[in-house]
Amino acid sequence: MNLARQLYQLQELDLEIESDERALEQVTGQIGESQAVVKAKAQLESEQQRLEELKHQQHTAEWEIDDITGKIAAAEEKLFSGQVKNPKELASLQQDVDMLKTQCNRLEEKALEIIDQVEQSEAAVAGITAELKTMTADWQRQQKQLAEEMARLKAVLADLKQKWQRLSQEIKPETVEFYQQLRERKGTAVARVEQGICRGCRISLPTTDLQRARGNNLVQCSSCGRILFLA
Ligand SMILES: [Zn+2]
Q1: Cα(190) to centroid(ligand 1), Å
Q2: Which of 51, 192, 203, 219 could pair with 121 as two cysteines, CB 3.0-4.6 Å apart?
Q3: What is this structure's pTM?
Q4: Mean residue pLDDT across the chain
């Protein structure tokens, strides 16, 4: 095989390896914990804590209402029992009952407000839980796809590198080294020649260069220095 063609093929492999390595790097970067899932979990935890606190407040308010209801019942029983006959004492008892009832009303209002907040918090917890479930499922699906893509790219790269090894062994080591140095310097080491033009620098090549490039010797473009390859 023509040496320039071999080097051109080596370059094609190098370009593919480079592009797949970039893809692999990108895929690897995406593997790991999802920030959105982490954030939603923290949100859920804080809402659950709030709900627990609200429920505690609700129970306390209910207990206080029970307590005061008992006190009202006892005071009213005394008031209507007929045992207290002194008008001053009766008026004082009535005042106590009225005061307790006002307190009870205030407590009931407060309890209703807390129950409203409990319901809102329960809805929030349910909402975040559902969202988290969907997010986690999406994330797991995505991670599975990424892992598959990673395995595929690794296999492709192993195959390409093997091909590169095989091909480079058919070429003299110093020529491979020359190619690699040129590639490092220029980005591409081998330039196709199309219609007498070097595709590396787009210059029209002199006929002598074209004739020499048809042979089996490596010919470099007199303008950009790349190895000329006549397809
Ligand atoms: Zn050139």
Answers
A1: 9
A2: 51
A3: 0.72
A4: 95
